[in-house]
């Protein structure tokens, strides 16, 4: 799961998180009891009943320079990364 | 420290000022009894004196704040029609963008990240002449209920320094409670505005989802995130809310044509309004909190409202759905932190993939990593239907049930948090305490409803108790009206809950 989430964890973290995430899963697993006696009709409607789609409108956006101001290194408008340390 | 002796006037009139403080300060500014520069200086000095103890602010912008205050003074001197927010010093939670300033979500991974644009809520305040004092402390990426997960360390409760200020917007609530800013803009994903407001004896308002633009708010769980307000009175909250709410083309979830005008409606009658008290939420609160809610119900009855105790178990059983949805959305939203485009990154790596994994593994805090893991798990093949889909179904069920409740009632009255403020370290030791902290608030975010937390007396430990009023979707004005009338009727209890130790 850590690989899937792109998180490098050390062995201490792996064992500690396994316990905590297990506890979290036990907790969220209670969802089954909450859904008991629930008709399919009650569950079929989207909860988002006000978010209608709107037409796209083209407008000015941030410049490339503004977007890149938080990048550590960049050149000619591209992010620069070292291949190896 | 106060300038020209005028601050003495401010502090001696504290009791009078906290009720409708914004309007009173505005009048003082217009009548030239105090200038915005003096007011800003006063707040900056208070931050300088108290912040080392409280840790409410993570950054103060003294120079820029004074420049903005001077600008506001020039506006005031011009005698043009001025907005009530002009020259008023305030703060932003560290996950709301203000162009050119660091917006780090109190995380190592965003250390040094400077916002390239203003959040809409802040941009509207700035446009009206608001003065930004600084950024306030929060749980890392708003994940937590105590501010203990902040990379800057926890915020202490201004009422008792051995207790937490709550979270995730603990810095904002402590700042308002300790007079280190008139109001604060913060975010509420599962109670992050209301719970710290309750712990610190402030008013915390979470608007309806879609009432205030989320543009420029760093995302945690996009379907739950809301920009909220912490202030000392419902009147102040209403004045700010009217100015920051409304349609924004930069956020497609904002509601077209929503214009609450809540301030105009604050004085409207509450007589005849129907309020329900869900028994399951009141019964899960500590004795003193439960007693306060029932006492508040009696007060509302005396004010002419019709109050009824009802059974509504779903908000309690829906708490796991909140955690599933919030963590699933967080795992997706936080996927953008790869150390390449912005923020911090590690130095030594063998490949781009390793750089990303190392950066995320080393620079995210424990709580964030656990929630990303849980979110990744519930969205993974084989578990999506077992968890995520069921959570969405439960969310739907909750919305359907709440629609029925609001056909009969105008508002719900509940505790804001089952307990008053935790002792420092208590919630970190006991995860159940931490989960249950969101019990009375998270369901409100699942349904996108407006809710306000009000201080109502203190418990035997001297900590403020918060009560919560919840309204139907886009009935924000009604919720604020009820809150305002309650505060006006219960001035003594209210003032008692706002007296701070630090």
Word description of this protein:
Chain A is mainly α and 85 residues long. Chain A has 3 helices and 2 strands. Chain A has helices spanning 11-28, 31-34, 64-68; strands at 74-75, 78-79. Chain A has a two-stranded antiparallel sheet with strand order 1-2. In chain A, a hairpin with a 2-residue loop joins strand 1 (74-75) and strand 2. Chain A is flat. The two termini of chain A are 27 Å apart. Chain B is an alpha/beta fold and 502 residues long. Chain B has helices at 6-12, 14-17, 21-30, 36-54, 62-78, 120-127, 170-177, 194-200, 234-244, 279-283, 287-302, 314-317, 319-333, 352-363, 366-379, 384-408, 426-429, 431-436, 442-447, 476-489, 491-498; strands at 57-60, 89-93, 131-136, 183-188, 203-206, 226-231, 274-278, 306-310, 411-415, 451-458, 464-471. An 11-stranded mixed beta sheet of chain B has the order 1-3-2-4-6-5-10-11-9-7-8, with helices on both faces. In chain B, strand 10 and strand 11 form a beta hairpin. Chain B is globular. Chain B starts with 5 loop residues before the first helix and ends with a helix. The model of chain B is unreliable at 1-16 (pLDDT under 50). Classes of the chains: A mainly alpha (85), B alpha/beta (502). The interface between A and B is large, with 52 and 70 residues.
Descriptors:
heterodimer, A: 85 residues, mainly alpha, two-stranded antiparallel ribbon, 3 helices, B: 502 residues, alpha/beta, 11 strands
